[in-house]
Amino acid sequence: xxxxxxxxxxxxxxxxxxxxxxxxNHVPSYEMNPRSSLLKIAVDDGFKNGWLxxxxxxxxxxxxxxxxxxxxLGLTNSDVLTPVDTVVDLQKNVHIKYKQYHKGIPVMxxxxxxxxxxxxxxxxxxxxxxSLNIDTKPVISKNSAFQASVASYMKSGSQHKRSL
Length: 164
Hints:
6-stranded antiparallel sheet
């Protein structure tokens, strides 16, 4: 009986380890840099899985935080963090979500949130695509892209073709 289930157990264990290794665990480079100036403003256990907790004694606004620490966050001169949403929670804390743009183009998955308590940044978290160096010059014209999109759509089996 043991021999009957052994292959199934081994297959399950192998699949589980494969799935676990495929998970993305983004750790910002400043978390791994012992000389990061962000350490000066972080609480002792302030770096955890992309979250940075700021000391209560540090009074800093979102604009100053981004300006002062943009390089350590991995942003280049071609990058901008643009606010896209603001939420005020029940405790009156403000959470500003930013989107990273590289040379004017939004970076998919690169979102950063700055959390404020009484007007000061108390923690930040998110993902930034660090040190991007990508050519953003289009390789085809807008018209060519549109025509290719329409042609691809017309070849598809969509029933909404009449709406074009």
